[in-house]
Amino acid sequence: MKTLTGVTLALLPLSALAASTEYQDIERGRYISVLGDCAACHTVDDDRPLAGGVPLETPFGTLIAPNITPDDATGLGRWSLEEFKAAMTEGVGKGGYHLYPAMPYPSYTLMTDKDIHDLWAFLQTVTPVENDIEANQLPFPFSIRGVMRGWNWLNFDERRFEPDPEQPDDINRGAYLVESLGHCGTCHTPRNFMGGDGGDKFAGATIEGWYAPNITPNRHVGIGAWSEEELVEYLKTGGNRFGFASGPMADEVHHSSQYWSDSDLSAVARYLLSGAGLESDDWDREPPEPLGEDDPQVRAGSHIYFDRCSGCHTPSGGGEEGIFPQLASNPLVNGDNTTSLIRVVLAGSRPVATDAKPTAPAMPAFAWNLSDEEVANVLTYVRNSWGNAAPAVAAGDVADIREALEEE
């Protein structure tokens, strides 16, 4: 006979059993909200959780994440569970208006009814906050929500998650977390011109001025060279020997993945490293040959590196464990897109601080004393040294990102 804190369930009154079940649903829903990273978009002030107000920059304009506290006037207080379920799985809000996919319903549509129910139960316990948000700040014609009917017809497939019977339970759990609640593809899969799934799953994409890197098992530009333990370490602590979470990923680690259970983190790592969610093994292609030492950019960049970078990252690119990431044989360095690399060199970065590692390392900014050409040269050197191999970085790309940073 099952017990609850040492008390036989059969001896508890029905009201106590109901209260126990309700509490378990709410606590489970709280964890679902963490898995779904609700706070990253819906919390500006930690003293007013989920009251909305976070600006979401999209290629089509700005959206403001709404208030999802149970406030009657400005939140979800007058919504029903069925209306909430429709928003999560169909992208349709109360009254029938269409949501924009900045709210990742194309991923949440995979959620189980139990997870939606428990998330809803938890949201009812959040302190109501009166905070009226004008979510839709897109310019015409994108401000017309009706256009989402066409977008959904072309880009959205309403469905539920179905475990793969040929995969073990942990891989299926990881698939559910990555594809649905974690909505990893929202950032890491390229978008088409409409903002829909552009194919080449998990191959990396630019978001909010950063590059969400390739998270396929490709060893040269993806995470195939990472061990399961290193991937779990990154998601739990905000960094590992290859890099530290910055930009939008820092928000994800801060609000979400650092609080995931170890078993869920391991399931995600196993799923991603297995390549089980990919339709082909294109991620296993051969890496390119590195540029030679006599390449003008490599030669010029080597002098800059030993003058400005080697003190922290070491002359051999090995870094310092737990403080400065290694640059040698680093897939993040070899990536097809250099947006984040250029941004970090120009503007510097202080990665996320987590409960496990509350003191985050920092990278100083070099925009003030390195020209566009010098930044391009040193990155070209790094991308073609110590086991790395990647195309040269163009000074024009550095100039574009410098200009974008100045406008932020």
Automatic annotation (TrEMBL):
* Domain Cytochrome c residues, every copy: 24-127, 169-276, 296-386
Q: DNA damage: present as a keyword of the record?
A: no
InterPro entries registered for this protein in UniProt: Cyt_c-like_dom, Cyt_c-like_dom_sf, Cyt_C_IC, Cytochrome_c-type_DH, Membr-bd_ADH_cyt_c
Instruction: State its location(s).
Output: Cell membrane
- Signal peptide interval: 1-18
Arranged from A to Z, the UniProt key words for this protein are: Cell membrane, Electron transport, Heme, Iron, Membrane, Metal-binding, Repeat, Signal, Transport
Give the main localization category: membrane
Gene3D superfamilies cross-referenced by the UniProt entry: Cytochrome c-like domain
Protein name as catalogued: Cytochrome c
